[in-house]
Design goal:
The chain is α+β, with helices and mostly antiparallel strands. The chain contains 11 helices and 6 strands. Strand 2 and strand 3 form a beta hairpin. Helix 4 (141-155) runs antiparallel to helix 11.
Length: 294
Amino acid sequence: MSAEKEQEFCALIADVKGSRSYEPARREELQLTIGDSLALLNGMFSTNMVKPMMFSAGDEVQGLFDGPAAAFLAYRLLAMLLRPCELKGGMGIGDWSVRMTSPESTMQDGSAYHDARDAVEFAKKSRLYDAAFWGSRCCDPRRTVLADHPLGIQAMRTAAQTDAALAIELARPITGSRIAWSDDEYCEAVTRVLSHREPLRDRAATLVDRILQRNGKWKCPVQPVSYGDGIGTVDEASAALTAGLAPDLRGMPYELAELSGMSRQGIARLVSQARVEQERNATSVFCELAERGW
């Protein structure tokens, strides 16, 4: 009988492009935003996180996950939280051979970490891709190209569209698993992240800022969603494409309008223009294929 295949892990390394050129005040706010964003991500993805995300050097962060789907979801949300700052990321799929008892990801080692380093260095030099997957010391072109589709949609959004997409993601995050926080704990963590946003933005935002101003904090309760549920037959797949694989967002514009004071029609228009459902569908398909080992 052949030996079972050794479990593979996915290390994530991400870095903010050009952050060293920021003015001191902007750099400080960026550090605070990243720190609070990592606390939020570590809570949201704890089920699939082997070692929590943390600073590794400067504005670079890293963490270790049980697979590429969770690592990508964490990177994707971090990119959304830090916009308009541009994030570069590398995800390495391989072994975790040096297992220190320390909870810190920076104390661990293995081919997953080596490949993540190669991947992020590739992404930093690439004119096409902001994030890359690496495995067995070479680029994984299929995962890199597929992951770029949702990330590319994100990168093309205006500030107002970015805010609408972020508000929806914070209310209905794609996590693949439950979040071990109460609504109050989650809203407090989100509020801490968003409190640092203004110095990082090129201009005033709309939806997220209005929710904060109107309520004094983030108030929308979290309802995490999985991906690819109930997609097996041709009919199920067709229905899923119609309703949304993520799943659909019916009712969200009304819910966000109640919290922000904006019109439901205005929010629905932003969501449509930002291609939020298409981006979430692409994210769901990527994660489902990644879970299958494709």
